[in-house]
Amino acid sequence: MADEITPLFAQYLGIKQQHPNEVLFFRLGDFYEMFDDDAVEVSRLLNLTLTHRGQNPMCGIPYHAAKIYIARLLRLGKKIAIAEQVGDIPAPGKGLTERKVIEIITPGTALESEYLDGGINNFLASLCVRGKETGFSFIDVTTGEFKATSFETASIQENFPKELGRCSPRELILPESLRSNRIIQDTVALFDSMAVSYYPDWNFSLDSGYERLTEQFGTANLRSFSLTENSVEVMSAGFLLDYVSKTTNVSSPHIKSIQVYKDSEYVVMDDSSRRNLEITGNLRDGSQQFSLLECVNYTRTAMGSRMMRKWLTFALTDVNAIISRQNHVELFVNDRTLLRRIRDQLDGILDVERLAGRIAMDKAHGKDLQALRASLSCWLNIQSILGDSNFALINPEPAAEIIDLIANSIMEDPATSLTDGGIIKSGWSEELDHWRQVHDNFNQVLDEYVEEEKQATGIQNLKIKKSGNMGYFIEVSKGKLDKVPSHFIMRRTLVNADRYTTEKLQELESNLNESDTRILELERDLFLEVRNRLKAFVAYLQQTAREIAYADVTSSFAEAAVRHNWVRPVIEESLVFDVKGGRHPVVEQHIPQGEFVPNDLNLCSEDGCTFALITGPNMAGKSTFLRQNALISLLAQTGSYVPALYARLGIVDRIFCRVGASDNLAKGESTFLVEMTETAHILRSATEKSLVIMDEVGRGTSTEDGLSIAWAVSEYLLERIKCKTLFATHYHELTRMESDRAKKLCMAVDESTSEVVFLRKVISGSSQNSYGIHVARLAGVPEPVIKRAQMILEKIQGEAEDKPVINADEHVFEEEKSAAAPVSFTGGLFSDEELILDEILSLEVDSITPIQALQTIARWKHSLSGR
Ligand code: ADP
Questions:
Q1: Which domain does 848 fall in, by range?
Q2: pLDDT tens, position by position, 505-550
């Protein structure tokens, strides 16, 4: 078998051996070819034709269209190694062209815009466990953003998904030793579009990581980044840098710092709460539709869009920082003309942050520089529009300098290739102008020369022509050959004419050729010189990009506030949660205007209540009410306005949103165990400053179990943790729980007609318990069944000693069958009188409205009189 391998295939195998984890794109002429398993997999993934080369499966893609295919493979989480032909192509039969992997493209280190999503950071993340501590780091090579944090290994089950959820990396690299760890595997499985790979543990070394980081940042130590030689973050962060430089094969001088953050700096939200609240993506398909992001994101630039995501996933806990953002949003809200002018200018700004990265990594081409120039011009306009507002803005002079440099040196619409010319403006370099003149004047010079020879020789039809392989020549027709002078050098004889050259013609031609080559070389060199000069501005451009993003996000918040009629919340260092006329930002946008019913919530105010128990039937609006308050709280801490008439909010440190198992069953992930694990997590981690949303907890088990758990959990939150809690339940038995610090709320229902109408209004009190049965009636369940259900329900609720024996009274239904309609149903455990008496005794007179009282009496009368 071995002797059948051609030298070319042996070369392929040699390279493939070094890149077992990547799809190898092997350059053969105008194609990238893939072989063996790579070919089989890629042909399946990209729907390409699979052919064979001898025994080996093979498929190929044209090299000029490679980016489209690479982009698709990256989205599928694949890594690609590009093996190019390097060195000279040998003469036929004289050995092989050398081939080498020149670049590895992975989802988390891709640099070209074709592989990136403009409005989303392209993060590469890493995690490393060292005993009791775990470090987590992530980096976006395209922007230079680099962050790290650490937590106790004991809490990895909560913190690892939480951190992954915050940054949503496209790629994760882990130490080999974690490959078989169940928690790691379970977590990784939650993020299905993320590429995951494992590397030997020694890569995550503290010493080399420290060295790598100091070298990258050009600092003697890492103190200014709050890291020491012993910080666990160094292990993962160091390897990230290593991995980036090995895969991209370019240096990344724009990565100049790392931000180490702590949980206390931002609102902590575990991954499942973040998903449940649908912050950046909906629960159904993860897309932005129907997410919070969708209804606040009016950003106009890619940088703004990325910052918006960050603000929503890293909401602040520092009152002053929030107020400072609010002040800027307010400036725009109060001055709509200013808002419009700023946003018009933002429209003209491209991705300055990634352009700066491209300049730093020697990737920028002429069009990139023109994009930068145009963007900076708009930015300078923004600076002057903002004038002496309270925005702290960077010195505009370097921006003006950059604009001048590019405007003077680069053509308006330059070529993207560096080797084909068409980049540098005339007037920028005398030498280039000279050679361009030589080139441009060539035809004129040639015409003059023809004229000169015509005069000298008297051959009037003498012509200068050009052919592909001969270059320029003088042609003399056969009839005039006797006039050919001696300085004409014969090149070829044809039937009708002879072709000559002369020394002068050769000189002119070589001048032309030289001018062509010099123009291309000079354009390239001059462009690189300009680009190198711009490298000095990379840090400045990064800061500019941050300011642009800031102006974009704050004005986007203002736009949302104006469009949706939101209000600036009062933020303070207290426990208060007081929202009047609160609305759900997303639901409100998706129902007809004006139909959303606003609701209030007041916790931790004068009455000292921390806990609200919300009862009500399904579909009455409980979940919406719960979520809207969590979203208002989160939005407020990003600096945004909130969907309410008024809000006064103390800072919350954590937001939890637990949704009962059955509400989540569609996702197939919520077993009762998951529900309880998450509940346990909340009970362990919530503090007095936290906001806890519990929606139908305890549903995933039997009624008695569920009720007891819901009760105990409520008590713990109420008595021990004392956090702000919204607890929605269909167990109205819970309303018997008494505490001065718990308030009972329910969803108002209009029963004045035969239809049950959910008013979506949260009112004080507890829900009546018969709505499920009402809904059953509406659904057409036969009346005797409804009545029987009512009876059983009331019996259960009465906790009578003699529990109803279901099915024992079979005659109940038999009787019904024989009776003529309408039926007066009398069977069962209790008479109508008993039932009514029972209902009177259990009625909460304080919590029903006069109209409800009248309706209830009418129902009793109807029931007793049969009318
Ligand atoms: P529950 O949790 O009680 O089952 P939901 O909160 O899921 O009820 O609400 C059911 C539906 O009612 C939602 O899809 C929403 O469209 C609508 N809804 C909820 N609250 C309101 C409100 N305040 N105003 C208008 N419509 C609402």
A1: 832-865
A2: 999 999 889 999 999 999 999 999 999 999 999 999 999 999 999 9
| Contact present, 374 and 548 (Cβ < 8 Å) | no
Domain presence at residue 98: yes
Torsion of CA 369, 374, 377, 382, to 10 degrees: -120
Residue 783 Cα to ligand 1 middle (Å)? 28
Residue 472 belongs to a domain: no
Instruction: Report the DSSP beta bridge partners of residue 28.
Output: 31
Burial category of 440 from C-beta neighbours within 10 Å (exposed 0-12, middle 13-18, buried 19 and up): exposed
Neighbours of 74 (CB within 10 A): 24
Q: What confidence tens digit (pLDDT) does each residue in 218-235 have?
A: 999 999 999 999 999 999
**Does the pLDDT value for residue 603 go beyond 90?**
yes
Q: pLDDT grade, residue 708 (50/70/90)? A: confident
Whether residues 70 and 187 fall in one domain? no
814-840 mean pLDDT = 51
pLDDT at residue 770, as a whole number:
52
The partner residues of 471 in beta bridges, in order of sequence, read 467
143 shares a domain with 41: no
Domain count, the chain: 5
- Alpha carbon of 744 to ligand 1 centroid (Å): 19
**Do 660 and 728 reside in the same domain of the chain?**
yes
Q: Identify whether residues 719 and 602 lie together within a single domain.
A: yes
Instruction: Select from 234, 261, 288 the last residue of a domain.
Output: 261
Q: How many angstroms is it from 621 CA to the middle of ligand 1?
A: 3
The enclosing H or E element of 366 equals helix 366-386
Give me the pLDDT at residue 661, please.
Answer: 52
User: How, if at all, do strands 124-130 and 171-175 pair?
Assistant: parallel
How many C-beta atoms surround the C-beta of residue 133 within 10 A? Answer: 17
Q: Hey, whose CA ends up nearest to atom 16 of ligand 1?
A: 587
Ligand 1 pocket test target in 624, 662, 759 with most atoms within 8 Å of CB: 624
Query: What is the C-alpha separation between 38 and 214, in angstroms, rounded?
Result: 39
Q: For residue 485, what are its two tokens?
A: 């002078």
As annotated, the binding site for ATP includes 616-623
Q: Is residue 787 domain-resident?
A: yes
Q: For the beta carbon of residue 648, count every other beta carbon within 10 angstroms.
A: 17
Task: State whether 850 and 747 are in the same domain.
Answer: no
Per-residue pLDDT tens for 649-685?
A: 999 999 999 876 544 444 444 467 777 888 888 998 9
Distance 584 CA to ligand 1 centre (A): 10
Residues 88 and 127 in one domain: no
Calpha distance 382→399 (Å, rounded): 12
Does 242 lie in the same domain as 126? Answer: yes
Compute and round to an integer the Cα radius of gyration of the chain: 37
Q: Residues 97, 234: one domain?
A: no
In a domain, 52, yes or no: yes
Instruction: Report the 10 Å Cβ neighbour count for 844.
Output: 11
CATH number of the domain enclosing 47: 3.40.1170.10
List pocket residues of ligand 1, CB cut-off 6 Å.
587, 591, 595-597, 599, 616, 618-624, 760
**Segment 439-495, tens digit of pLDDT:** 999 989 999 999 999 998 888 888 899 888 888 999 998 888 888 888 999 888 888
- DSSP lists the bridge partners of residue 104 as 81
Q: Give the residue, out of 588, 618, 619, with the most ligand 1 atoms within 8 A of its beta carbon, to mutate for a pocket test.
A: 619
Q: What is the dihedral of CA 351, 310, 166, 139, to 10 degrees?
A: 40
